[in-house]
Amino acid sequence: MNHCYDSTIAAISTAMSNSGIGIVRMSGPKAVEIVDRVYRGKKEKKLSDQKSHTIHYGYIVDGNDTVDEVLVMLMRGPHSYTGEDTVEINCHGGVYIVKRILEILIKNGARPAEPGEFTKRAFLNGRLDLSQAEAVGDLITSQNEYALQSSINQLKGNVKKKINEIRKKIIYHTAFIETALDDPEHISVDGYGEELRIVVDDLLKEIKSLLDTCDDGRIIKEGIQTVILGKPNAGKSSLLNVLIGEDRAIVTDIAGTTRDVLEEHINLQGISLNIMDTAGIRDTKDIVEKIGVDKAKSQAGKADLIIYVIDASSPLDENDNEILSLIQGKTSIILLNKSDLDMIVTKQEVEKAYFASNLAKKENETEKENSFNVPIIEVSAKNQQGIDELENTLKNMFFAGNLSFNDEIYITNVRHKTALQDADTALQKVIESIDAGMPEDFYSIDLLDAYESLGNITGETMGEDLVNEIFSKFCMGK
Question: Which residue of 241, 368, 438, 470 has the smallest Cβ count within 10 Å?
Answer without folding.
Answer: 438
